[in-house]
Write a structure and sequence with these properties.
single chain; alpha+beta; Beta Polymerase, domain 2; Four Helix Bundle (Hemerythrin (Met), subunit A); cca-adding enzyme, domain 2; four-stranded mixed beta sheet; three-stranded antiparallel beta sheet; 33 helices; about 5% strand
């Protein structure tokens, strides 16, 4: 392109123009078929750049590369980076390709100076943008089909660490950050190894597909495991071993990036100051401050070798609902591998105390799992770490699903609805939370996971010193954790004998409460949008009716009040039509099984359909229910259309090869 410039102007162009690669190209990490980002940096007032840029960009386009391009002065580039976090993070990764070194160096100095001057605001903007991206592409490391670039723990989090480095410390290079003492050698090596693994993986996926694509789906997992020569071992398939390695790397990346961000936040320094001024020292070498919990020199010494001290710290954080200072937790992380395998009884008591209080339970269990301490209390979690679930329902690995189930249950504490009321009434919540941690850990074993889970629950009861009644409750919850799910969504819950048998099987109102919340939390932790209002309605109806048999009353309302609430909900769906005497009579006379076992919105639609029928008319409808993967047929008519109408209808369906899972006939009074 410079050759097209008149010879007399070529030297001036080299002084006034710099060709700059940024983003992935600037880091020398651009993947095959991905965009190439180029910026022509020019001296303010230079008029020679136009023809040069036009020729250069045309040649790049003609070569088949996907190009992102711009022409800017140093001032324009710096100003735009202050307005757009995406532009700023891309320009952090700038590299001179050709042209004026002096111009490029001047840009870098001014850019770095402005970025650091806006440190806190820019850090917040970059963090916000990364959080939004993670929420879209995967906010957890342990997705079954992760995006290797944008999901949590992926390549973007390594870039995120580099961006924080420049904004807060003036350099994005991990080696320089280590030399400054803000990044440990172990963390730098972890980031380096993960980056090499993820870059190879992304390039391999792009080359194989012949186009950009960063989702590591199940077909790719199987292919790459074979490509890398993974073999079955320790009861794991090759693909499971490969994905465990993937999750090991991304887990490390996520952890290092989050801790590095926590160190870089200015609020951390304010937190330490507030803790020194207003914190209360507690036994064991810890200080409970207004913002966070820290360890004194005595406390840090204990944390480095005593698992009881670690669990005391975690228990304190939960009881006071405050986060643990990142530097304090870093002491735990470094010491975790060297802590004794056998935990003293005092550490186990702190663990049970932790499980009793929902305040910060979810995040604290995650922290324990990240550093490998949670599996000291529940050894079966080691097998479940990063374990795939090859089915169409689950979106997360077994360990991630278990942690999410606990988090989902603790969210019910602030729920104003029926499930919130049920959760708050549970007395010994530690058994519920422990059952949620354990309920799926039997997966990955030869036998049925509920049976394997029963053995795990027995071992956990012994290990944690539960009494006989607690142990029996825990074993029941784990062994029967699918029971309410199966009955509510696959069986005819209008069958009174089924309800009676289920109530007898559960045996007590308290155990029923735990099982109900466990079922709801389990369903809600399967994946995004898996918990629906319809599922809540069906599950709660089963709970209410079983509770009626166990306790003679439903929690908060008796059964008649429950029926009246259902009738009022149907009338609400009818809107203005509820004032018509016909609708009022029909709603009041609805059969109990139909009223309790059908969504109130559907009842209103059925009544409108009946109201619209002419004498002798028949209306048939079919609806696919994805929640249960079944077809629901609804036929509305009058009994006198033909003798034996119900038997003729069921015969017509079975003659077409359809299996009838349940059938109901509901008769209302004549018009």
């Amino acid at each position: 392109a410079v050759a097209d410039v008149p010879p007399a102007e070529q030297e001036a162009v080299r002084r006034e123009v710099a060709l700059v690669a940024h983003g992935g190209q600037g880091r020398r990490e651009v993947a095959p078929y991905s965009d190439v980002d180029l910026m022509i940096l020019r001296v303010d007032g230079s008029e020679r750049v136009g023809p040069l840029a036009e020729r250069l960009f045309r040649d790049v386009f003609d070569s088949g590369l996907v190009l992102g391009h711009s022409v800017r002065t140093t001032e324009e580039a710096c100003r735009l980076s202050g307005q757009d976090a995406q532009v700023c993070t891309s320009l952090i990764e700038s590299r001179l390709l050709a042209g004026s070194r002096e111009l490029f160096d001047g840009f870098q100095r001014q850019f770095t100076r402005r970025v650091r001057r806006r440190g806190s605001a820019l850090l917040a903007a970059i963090e916000r943008a990364r959080l939004e991206e993670r929420m879209k592409f995967g906010e957890t490391v342990y997705l079954l089909e992760p995006n290797v670039k944008r999901s949590r723990g992926g390549l973007r989090d390594i870039q995120f660490l580099r961006w924080i480095g420049l904004v807060r410390y003036g350099t994005p290079e991990p080696g320089e950050l280590q030399a400054m003492g803000v990044l440990s050698e172990a963390d730098r090596l972890a980031i380096q190894q993960a980056g090499e693994f993820l870059l190879w993986l992304r390039n391999e996926m792009h080359f194989h597909a012949g186009k950009p694509g960063d989702v590591l789906d199940r077909a790719e997992q199987l292919r790459i495991a074979q490509r890398l020569g993974y073999e079955p071992a320790a009861g794991l398939l090759p693909v499971e071993r490969f994905m465990r390695d993937y999750f090991r790397h991304t887990d490390q990346v996520s952890y290092v990036a989050e801790r590095f961000l926590a160190k870089a936040r200015s609020a951390r320094r304010l937190g330490r100051l507030a803790n020194r001024l207003f914190g209360i020292r507690v036994e064991g070498g810890f200080r409970v401050g207004p913002i966070q919990i820290t360890a004194t020199a005595e406390g840090r010494a204990r944390l480095a070798g005593d698992p009881t001290a670690v669990m005391q710290l975690v228990d304190l954080a939960n009881l006071h609902d405050k986060p643990i200072d990142p530097e304090t937790w870093e002491v735990v992380r470094r010491a975790s591998a060297g802590l004794p395998a056998e935990l003293p009884p005092a550490a186990q008591q702190h663990f049970l105390s932790l499980l009793k209080h929902p305040a910060r339970l979810g995040p604290l269990l995650r922290s324990l799992h990240e550093v490998g301490l949670l599996e000291r209390f529940i050894p079966a979690l080691a097998h479940a770490r990063g374990l795939l679930q090859f089915n169409q329902y689950h979106k997360y690995t077994v360990d991630e699903h278990s942690l999410r189930a606990v988090e989902r249950a603790t969210e019910f504490l602030a729920d104003s609805g029926p499930l919130g009321n049920i959760y708050r009434r549970i007395g010994d919540k530690h058994l519920l939370h422990l059952a949620l941690l354990i309920h799926d850990l039997g997966k990955g074993h030869p036998q049925d996971h509920c049976e394997a889970g029963l053995a795990i629950a027995e071992e956990a009861s012994r290990r944690l010193g539960l009494d006989a009644d607690e142990a029996e409750s825990l074993k029941f919850l784990v062994h029967r954790h699918l029971r309410m799910n199966h009955l509510a969504f696959r069986r005819d819950t209008s069958d009174e004998q089924l309800i009676v048998r289920f109530a007898v099987e559960v045996g007590s109102p308290e155990l029923l409460r735990k099982l109900c919340v466990l079922t709801a939390a389990d369903l809600g932790a399967v994946g995004p949008d898996t918990w629906t209002s319809w599922k809540a309605e069906v599950l709660l109806d089963l709970y209410q009716r079983a509770m009626q048999h166990l306790a003679g009353e439903s929690p908060g309302v008796d059964f008649e009040e429950h029926l009246q609430e259902r009738r009022e909900a149907v009338l609400a769906w009818l809107g203005p039509e509820q004032q018509e005497p016909w609708f009022l009579r029909r709603v009041e006379s609805l059969p109990t099984s139909y009223l309790c076992g059908t969504q109130t919105q559907q009842i209103a639609a059925d009544l409108r359909l009946l109201r619209s029928l002419a004498p002798g008319e028949v209306n048939a409808q079919a609806c696919y229910l994805p929640e249960t993967q079944t077809l629901q047929f609804t036929v509305a008519t009058s009994e006198d259309v033909t003798p034996g109408i119900f038997h003729k209808l069921t015969g017509a369906l079975t003659s077409q090869g359809l299996q009838i899972l349940s059938a109901q006939i509901n008769t209302l009074a004549d018009r």
